[in-house]
Request: fold
Amino acid sequence: MLKYIAKRLISMVPVLVGVTFIVFAIMHFTPGDPATLLLGEEAPPAEVERMRERMGLNDPFIVQYGNFLMGLFRLDLGISLTSGRPVYNEIMNRLPATIRLSAAAILVAIFIGVIAGIIASTRQYTVFDGGAMFIALLGVSMPNFWLGLMMILLFSVFWNNTFGYVLFPSSGFGTLRHLVMPAIVLGTAHAAFITRITRSSMLEVLRQDYIRTARSKGLNERVVIYIHALRNALMPVVTMAGLRFGVLLGGSVVTEQIFAIPGMGRLLVESVRSQNYTLVQGIILTYAIIFSLVNLAVDLLYAAIDPRIKVQYK
Amino acid sequence: MATEATTVKVSAKRKQRTKLQETWRRLRKNRWAMGGLSLIIFLALVAIFANQIAPYGYNEQDYLRILQGPSRENLLGTDNLGRDVLSRIIHGSRLSLSIGFITTGIGLTVGGFLGALAAFYGGRVDNLIMRFMDVILAIPGFIFAIALVTALGPSLTNLMIAVGINTIPYFARIIRSSVMSTKENEFVEAARVIGSSDLWIIFKHLIPNSLAPILVQATLRIGDTIIIASGLSFLGLGAQPPLPEWGALLSAGRGYLRVAWWMATFPGIAIMITVLAFNLLGDGLRDALDPRLKN
Reply:
């Protein structure tokens, strides 16, 4: 198993190096001079030139990229052009909020999605099935920022007007109550997606011979569904949920914006607006790393779900 | 003898129904998919005849009717500049639908070409192209689009380019796997024997034979790109005011959520209905093209 983890970690490296190259290249060819941005428009040209030299901006592209890569090994992502603080520290300040939000959202999504998927598949062609599938379809078709605004409208504005208190606060972060709305908003599309996959995967598994065997030997239907069928049906669910995690991360940017959550996404939008390229670069890289790590975790989950895979890597 | 000839003729005739006609026949039976298709046609008509349908211009301001709720004059209310929300949504349908089609078009052409090249030549070309696609896919799509818009500058055109580039890898992957399986066919061999060039074989034989999965992917992608693009506009990185792009309308409505709920509510419903229509059609197409997949 350890060998497998090591192998997967190593295979991540070339892709991530590719990511650094693309992101660095995009930011490099973006108009605007980082030295001027750092020193301000009024800075004397000589000083800007000195800064350019110090930041290595006069070096050829490939040298700059090499220095950037070398810096990465020391966790040095450069300095923020607006605050002058290291990009690494800025990101680390904001990372926890984003991780908490995404984790909460994925828990919501898996919980709702798997249960709704099971209900739909075990009652195929009933009202439950049709209803769950229609709601799921709405869920994948709805922009999450709109859902967020609607929830604020309902649970913060209207609720307050009717009952005189706020059920869930619409901004801020810290307590569990603050997390409820953002997690639901971010998790909904994912939940809808998981529902659809769980359903079709379960339907496939429920037709298998071993399910018939389990039923015919008189097992409780619950045991058949939750133990025999679900475990086998989960593989595609986990795969697709992992691949779609990138969509969830993207959604967190907007969700953080709506609920004023001090996460990486808000920092990204602020940095884009202030043309803080070094910070934008660092944040995008961090998102890519998180996404890759999640997919690694998904691969490891396979082994936990399916013992046959574990045996291969013993 | 005569009867035998007729049966042969009949079976030949039945076979002549093309795959497209067969798909259409199955699709027509699917009420949800037809609902989606009708909705798309309706939305397209609204977009085409926006100037005739919309009661007001998209930037027609009336300072005496600012932030008015839905009424007979303004069915969906007015915004902070006294503009009719319904008219803005109707005009915005042009932008959102164009964004959906153009971005998907970019992804389809570039991605399709790259995918076909990768599959056709295999080996190093394949490796190079597909590893590049892996790298793009390693960056969450929405965030990659933000990076591109940062570099290009926020505008409607750049938004389309950014979101379009984003969809390239999906098409590249699909077309690659599809071409991989068709290129082993004998008709490809035959084309090569009669001296067709590589590009001719790719465009004339391989891509048309991979149309089914492309069609499904493209339909579902249009919905996705509309959501991504409206999200970027929502963040102020896409369409700029006074353009009535739906995401931009939502963004404007956000500031007035407490006083004018209609400003943010209705543009969102418009996005949802549009994306839903494409998803319904896409799901239906998938089932119609490959009935085995349907449960």
